Amino acid sequence: MLRTPDQYVRSLQARSLVLYVDGERVADPTVHPRVRPAINAVAATYALAHDPRTRELATAQSELTGARVNRFTHLFAQPEDLRRKLELQRVLGRLTGTCFQRCVGMDGINSLFIATFEAGGEHHERFVRWLRQVQRDDEVIDGAMTDPKGNRNQRPPQQPEHYLRVVERRPDGLVLRGAKIHQTGAANSHQILVMPGMAMRPGEEDFAVAAAMPVDAPGVTMVLGRQPSDERKGGPDAGNALYGGQEVVILFDDVLVPWERVFLDGQLPACTTLVEAFAGFHRASYGGCKPGNLDVLIGAAALLADEHGVRRASHVRDKLVEMAHLGETIHGLGLGASSKATRHESGVHQVDPLLANVCKHHVTRLPYEVVRLAEDIAGGLMATMPSLADLEHPEIGPALRTVVGSDERARALRLVEYMSYGAGSVPLRIECMHGAGSPQAQRIVLERRIDWARRVDAARRLAGLPAREGDDADDRRLDHQIAAAGQPEAAATK
Ligand code: SF4
Ligand code: FE
After folding, report:
1. pLDDT in tens, 218-241
2. Which residue, 275, 293, 276, 283, is CA-closest to 334?
3. What CATH number is given to the structural domain containing 355?
4. Whose CA is nearest to atom 1 of ligand 1?
5. Which of 10, 28, 383, 445 yields a CA-CA distance of 20 to 30 A from 474?
6. List 45, 74, 96, 99, catalytic entry
């Protein structure tokens, strides 16, 4: 089944979700002004699956069921699936101007397919049975990885209260206690897929758990994140007229998960595989959604340049070109990581981990420059402009409009403000910095994955230094061949 946006929103109304917003329990999240914009952004992932222009991109043929499924529930069975994911994320990032929330589940599904394949037997069979149901019902999966972690110097057993953990194993399932934070789109999901947020060591088996449960399972409580300009949502100054992102804290108060929905329980090597695979997939994903978001910001800056009458000024054109070039740089890295795909023996294709980390690392920097340039073009009015409600006031409105200018200018200013430090889910820059791992997490992977020896060997060869043990003999053989080419003895030494 490919749900429509309407079917999706109705399916959310059928849940008994326990959700708190600003200290109050929310009866129906689908009509709450703080939640609905984020639901709209997820609904866009359903709408594209039916739109004739994007149907091919937003859906795929499932190897598991043979049916056409939404790409957000699909396995990366072909290298092409990784590239199409990036293209779809860019379209959605540009369409919504925010986080559309469904990629963590998609990347988590693919990672867990690989990890349970390595764990073998019942682990993989249970997971595949579950995934078939997710594809059939076209569900939104909240990929729940990040634990609060407490003191980073202490391992989970020293501070178990800061990690989601198994507190009991019973004949009918295991019992989970703890919390997950930074939960993208959790309140707009159908199921939570909990996964460990880091590799676990021997003795830490209770923390190496991957399992699925409905978002309204008994013991699950969600609390919506709070942003400085949240109160503008739904009003004239929202910035983004329709869409928003969402981050949630999830509390697990002794949640019973039946064994049929437990995919990993203490399998440490598989847990490490899972964490590493997810980091690769999701760090490449930022090469899709963030350039799409930046397209909106660049468009708003160009619109403002027109409104200010400076669009043809050479320094403004140069700034706009610079902004676009930075966005394309991120996208190119995401596509590069996807194009260098390798096939895991499970059949899922994985991105190039080095380029995926370089992509995400650029995302922690380049959007800051794009935002800086947008703020430069926008001018100070972006931060000092009165509410759009004042502009529409019958008495003060006409005079204020003379000050602020056109409706285009006022709305574009609000949009730049929203995109740069307003309330999408979290401000775009903070999401760019910390989503899918903070910068140091990427540098650690880069240092580990870069082939330093090969680089040093290349330098030693060209500097005329002798080979050392372990150096690549083939490169030196090529050197000799090339140097000897055309010389009388070349034929003999070939
Ligand atoms: Fe998808 Fe980007 Fe949001 Fe992650 S931050 S869920 S990749 S839109
Ligand atoms: Fe994110």
Report:
1. 999 999 998 766 778 888 888 998
2. 283
3. 1.20.140.10
4. 103
5. 445
6. 99
